[in-house]
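Input sequence (391 aa), recorded before submission:
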Amino acid sequence: MFTNSWTRSKQKNTAKNTDEPAVKSKESKPVTEPKKEVPGVVPRSAGPTMCNILVLGKTGSGKTSLLNYLYGFTLPVGAGLPKTGKGLHEQILTRNGIAYHVFDTWGIEADSLPEWRKEVLGLVTARNTSMQIREWFHAVYYCFSANTARIEEAEVKEVIVPLLAMGCKVVIVLTNAEDGYKKAEKIEGMQQYLREELQKRVPFARMPEVIPVSSVAGETLGGDTIVRFGRQEVLEAARYNLTEDIAVRLPAIYKANLRAKLAAWKERSLLLLANGKISFVLNNNSAKQLIDLINYDLLNTFGAVDADGDRLEKEANAYLLLSDEKKQMDKRWRPAFRRLSYVKGYEYSKGFSLSLAKDIAAGLMRSSQSIRENLSRKVERTHKEILDSLQ
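Predicted structure, token format:
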């Protein structure tokens, strides 16, 4: 995915876009040159160093060949990724300073679908809600072979639809799309079927792109040249998906983090009020000391939220700088909320005066329990006001 710069102003069509260098080159060197992504703008250490790829599809659907073509890997075709039994399998491949974490599954078959679905959807959910963008899936591919032109209903209903419904963007790749007997008709039929089914089942989701790809160059038995194509379109679609994910997920993650930190602050504050010392005399002053601690903790909570937001923004910008436009996050991406920096308590007086005498008298009439309950209600109210103000 992090292999060349890109721009996108509109949806790509599915016509073949031949990768001439891939055919003409007789070298074994990878096609990709990541150094051209951000020349002279950002040092390599500032860019993303991890790319997580999830590739899905039935056995023999061309997943390994696709990965080799897109990223310049040299994975053994036919054997797929190393596996020991069923489950999701991760392999780390380092190229040009980027660690590619490739996740593959055993072939999707009817008898393994329930187990497969639970494991994959659980992993996608856990990763794509992480506070760290480097933990997300940066590209998700689902492969169908145009040779067989066979699409199982269960693959659409039980795999692709749940992924789209949970907000995971998928690039659907029709592999083995090189010229062949009635191949163009097969590809057109597959594209139409997928779009109609997905539109019917998840009308609220943005429809994934369905891109024909020829991953392996060579010759047919009749001596015709097999040209590779589709790489640019697939990588561009994956990067566009990631850009959209950043724009949508970051505010949601920021809100969730704020809610979690405010909930922890409220819990600490209520615990302090339940156990903190309140004097029998001059209990106003005791209450003020507790309030000061609570307010100081609230300011630290806001500081922690801001620090997390800064880190998220910095990480997002590193991924966004991959585009030709090199756009960074709009500074207004963080949802606004009221930064109440205090929990109001009782007024108290200092020095020997009539006010102090009134304070002592009031303290004698007020119980420690009533003060704790009063301040606890104020903490609850402050917590609610902040959350209610969150956009």
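Checked by second reader. The chain has two domains: 20-229, 252-389.
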